[in-house]
Amino acid sequence: MLDTLRSVLQFRKFQLDPVERRLAKAANVADLRRIARRRLPRGVFDYIDGAAEDERTLAANCDAFAGYGFKPRVLRDVGVVDTSATLLGKPLRYPLVLAPTGFTRIADPQGELAVARAATRAGLPYTLSTLSTRSIEEVAAASGEGRRWFQVYAWRDRGLVKEMIERAAAAGYEAIMPTVDTAVLGRRERDVRRGFSLPPKIGLGTLLDGAVHPAWTWQFVRSEPIVFATIATSGAAAGRDGSTAVGLAEFTAQQFDPGLSWADIEWMRSVWNGPLVLKGIQTVADAEIAAKEGIEVIALSNHGGRQLDDAPAVIDLVAPVADAVGSTAEIICDGGIRRGSDIVKAIALGATACMAGRAYLYALGAAGERGVDFVLQLLADDMRRTMALVGARTVGDVTSEFVERSTVRA
Ligand SMILES: Cc1cc2nc3c(=O)[nH]c(=O)nc-3n(C[C@H](O)[C@H](O)[C@H](O)COP(=O)(O)O)c2cc1C
């Protein structure tokens, strides 16, 4: 009887390492999100997870992928599937770039260093945000031989912008990425409700929240203070220590220049000797101007739904923009990437690559640097499996032949 029971009962080996234990329970990005939600204080999780106003664009970015179905081909010998691609003439292990995210250290004390190291290991470019909590030079050292890009916000003080661009050039960054959807900051209502400030203020609410998230709190109090490291070392108006201790909306209203125009992009070209990735294009009309201006890479993006609510879902822009300017510029689909199959769809519709923010932030919050390794491998495996199942051996094979608009949207 006991023998019979033993033969049918199989327990999973108990994992002593708590990080491995957590990751063993994650089958996809949604699981990593759930784990991050449990581990991070609510204000921190909401800063990462939240978006503008009713968050319809955030939802649409993800949901719109369900609006495209596959048309799988069979009997195509997919014994060997190669996910590698090129972007700006250089290789990617699979067509993904890690998007810039400000204040990454609130998810994990290593912050941008952890993400940059993981990106290098995965063979993918990492983009450092202007609002980073590790400096341009620290991240360059951490990313080593890896590809790194630098995201640029238009500070009112153009001298500061020039100085940061020069530092990025000196530190071996390959491309700059002006973000152009942030003339003013979107209203992120979860942050408004929580009175979320950067750095997080330690008030009674934070203390209470910290008490129920002891692992995060313990790491937070033990590590050096979180500051805007890149701006601090450029001596910005934030104060030399880079601390703002105000709401992000107030801070960006003081510092960002809503007067940004195409002339400024031309100016950036004049102070940067390399390719430009323009992030935040949301219409065919603007993509056409960008292509005419000689922009090398157009990143279709609505900032992950954090700026203008009811901006269009990014995946829906890919085909029309690729039709209009795909022969002149490379195209990145940035927003809503949660699975490797999303990447396959974007490529089939005409994107050169995709970009993801929250996917790696959830992983970082859930399991630190190993979490980021895990999610980048998960997306690569997902993509390889999807390619095999649709009958594509190489990324070059992934064409519009494989997708169609679904009649039923999930
Ligand atoms: C917490 C967080 C911080 C972000 N910070 C920046 C930033 O500093 N600069 C920028 O250009 N985009 C920023 N973004 C937008 C991302 O670069 C990217 O466009 C977005 O995350 C894509 O959507 P996804 O999260 O669905 O992948 C941020 C996004 C998140 C979630």
In words, what does this structure look like?
The chain has 410 residues and is of the alpha/beta class. Helices cover 45% and strands 11% of the residues. The chain contains 18 helices and 12 strands. It has helices spanning 2-8, 18-24, 29-39, 42-49, 56-63, 112-122, 136-143, 158-170, 189-194, 204-212, 214-222, 229-233, 248-255, 262-271, 284-292, 315-325, 340-349, 358-390, and strands at 68-70, 85-87, 90-92, 96-98, 126-128, 148-152, 175-178, 277-281, 297-301, 330-334, 353-356, 403-405. It has a 5-stranded parallel β-sheet. It has a 3-stranded parallel β-sheet with strand order 5-6-7. The chain has a two-stranded antiparallel sheet with strand order 1-12. Helix 15 (284-292) links the parallel strand 8 (277-281) and strand 9 (297-301). Helix 6 (112-122) packs parallel to helix 7 and helix 17 crosses helix 18 (358-390). The longest helix is centred in the C-terminal third of the chain and has 33 residues, at 358-390. The radius of gyration is 21 Å and the shape is globular. Residues 237-241 have low confidence and may be disordered. The site of flavin mononucleotide has 25 residues, from helix 4 and helix 18.
